[in-house]
Amino acid sequence: MNADPSWSTTWIDNEHPALRRCWHPVARSADVGDDGPMAVDLLGERWCLVRLGGQLTALRDPCPHRYSPLSAGTIVGDTLRCAYHGFRFAADGTCVEIPAVDPDLPIPARACATAAAGVTESLDLVWLAPEDPIAPLPEVPEHHDPDFVTCPLPPLDWNAGAAQMADNFLDLGHLPFVHLATFGDEDDKLVRDYKMERDGWRFTAHHRHFTKSLAESSGSKGDYKVVERELLFVFTAPHHVYLRIGYPEENVVLTISFCHQPVNATTTRLYCTDYRTDIEDEPDAIAEAVGFQLEVADEDQELLQRIGTKAVPLVPALEYHSKADRITLEMRRMLADLVAEAGAGVSS
Questions:
Q1: Contact at 8 Å (CB) between 142 and 209?
Q2: What pLDDT score does 7 carry?
Q3: Does residue 62 contact residue 73 with C-beta atoms inside 8 Å?
Q4: Can you give the pLDDT at residue 346?
Q5: What is the C-alpha separation between 82 and 320, in angstroms, rounded?
Q6: CATH homologous superfamily, domain 141-313
Q7: Which residues of the chain are under the pLDDT cut of 70?
Q8: Is 100 exposed, middle or buried (0-12, 13-18, 19+ CB in 10 A)?
Q9: Nearest to residue 13, comparing CAs of 44, 36, 34, 50?
Q10: Could you name the CATH architecture of 33-117?
């Protein structure tokens, strides 16, 4: 057992130390320019993102000298200069200059900034792993598929936990209750049996159910056409949800990528992107698609933010689980395995 009192094997929240060994989205790639650093928050810590000599790097934001934010600094050549006393840092965090000290003296390791174990770009996002990551980056094949139009939503901050939000996006039983104003069908209450398969730090689930037609899923009143949808879920630990929705009768595929940034104990930033085959790649059509997805997100957000706890239990006995909850129970099992792999045994 891990002796760290913050290392719970019963619950997982946005600041659980096991999440330090995972990839997390922290910014849109386009928001990290070449002209200066930016601050981001992850797991209750502040990091500084900066491009130095064409290399993206992430350093703990407090300067090791007097804790001044490195994100307030400036780029000098291939280094980042602290705004307070002019310490300069290379992309790996090495301190290469202390202006107030004789340059012939060696610079001690304690003067170096802490670099993240991993920082990379994927899906037009910056991903950060504070320590060596256990699980892989998520995959979204549609992101590079010319048959799909990419519709990114603006980043959304929720008063909810990242695992809690992933749980919601995987959940099959809430659709005819939470989403009646958009795509839900009030008669679609029974969750039929579905197939699941785990592969390492990912699992997939296939499900079919009835819902409003996509064309009538936004703003429809009164009667509407009910169609069958085919759902493919792929969950990648710790929090990514890939959802591919097929509408066979309408010959449409809508894929949604849900990326979660655990900002702090009570806040998660959602980077959600739709990929659609039924719209033109032009601003008005994309804006309409984004508007619809924002309506759906509002329905989920309104309810999730009213849940008092922002953590998800890792011990099955702490909640009631029905047969319909196999997909979200598997998420809990995988997160419990992640906690164990990262250094703690899971309570029996």
A1: no
A2: 82
A3: no
A4: 39
A5: 52
A6: Naphthalene 1,2-dioxygenase Alpha Subunit; Chain A, domain 1 (3.90.380.10)
A7: 1-6, 219-221, 344-348
A8: exposed
A9: 44
A10: 3-layer Sandwich (2.102)
